[in-house]
């Protein structure tokens, strides 16, 4: 033992090749083999074969019979072996597809509200980061019903199995929510192809999607995009009950847009009044911020001069008499009168339509159903009231769903004149 330890100490400083300890045994002569024979240390496969040949040669001296292999016959050498016709085999792709599509040998269950879907984990992991990051993969996975409904999961799993998947319009919102939760990038991209296409979502369809998409934070970015598509459909939307639930940030965005279509800037004031009046106690803190969206300089001068005396709606009266709102009205009146005075000094005829062509114009409508339509210079604009606006909204509610498409735009270069233009202007 001491000698072995001494040899081990000497070998520490010398690099050694990793080997295997091998006993060569011939089954036929195993009983006659010496028990004193030491095992061989083999480092390479070639050394292993040399050892086998050595053992075979040793045993050949003890046996006069030889195998065909020892005679030199090579069992692996058959002429033209690979040229022979081979039996056909179903491709692995076809077999796997058949098994997956027929739900054979499924290895995971997706539980959604007491319903189990038998699935192949590899299919889920290929498309979904949610599933691919599960380590280890459970046998049963429970998904929240509010994020992934049973019907939606069925649609998504079929999407995964399809080579050319299509999404139906009725499924796009729940599918987008579920794909966001499950982090299915390819499916989210397909949804965005629809969202970003104005041919799919614009005006009324964009508004419908906006309403449908409320209630989930994952859809906020979609709702923001749809807001930019609501232009000519704006007043139809205002006439609906859904408008009353619009968040203040979204309402502010709409009212600040140059693209929304109205008959007169006065309607912006009325729209704010309608929204605030739905929950005045909860929304009164937003009043001044919303009032800042109004472009008072685009309102008719006669209306600005008279509205604080003639308007009977109590909430609107409260807004109009607020000091900051009154200051905006007075500033707009001053802007109008200054322009009129400058044009008179220059010997020019006052063109009130220049007001609608000024900075930050809206897109102006010419709806024949609007009961308070007047030319902007018409003195009768002083009689426009909130109750007329409410009546107009009731008219819009009864119109065909495509009525908004029939409304014409106002040509500011050749505006329509109202019948009362020849009347004597009332006293302001």
Q: Brief description of this entry?
A:
The chain has 428 residues and is mainly α.
Shape: rod-shaped
pLDDT average, as an integer? 85
Query: How many strand segments?
Result: 8
Decide which structural class fits the backbone.
Answer: mainly alpha
The figure for the number of domains is 3
Largest sheet: 3 strands, mixed
Strand content: 5-15%
State the helix count. Answer: 22
**Helical amount among residues, as a percent range?**
40-55%
Spans of at least 5 consecutive residues with low confidence: 29-35
String of helices and strands: HEEHHHEEHHEHHHHHHHEHHHHHHHEHHE
From the N-terminal CA to the C-terminal CA, the straight-line distance is 124 Å
How would you describe this structure to a colleague?
By secondary structure, the chain is mostly helical. Helices cover 46% and strands 6% of the residues. The protein contains 22 helices and 8 strands. It has a 3-stranded mixed beta sheet. α7 crosses α8, α8 packs antiparallel against α9 and α10 packs antiparallel against α11. About 2% of the residues have low confidence.
Quick tags:
428 residues, mainly alpha, Potassium Channel Kv1.1, Chain A, 3 domains, three-stranded mixed sheet, 22 helices, 8 strands, rod-shaped
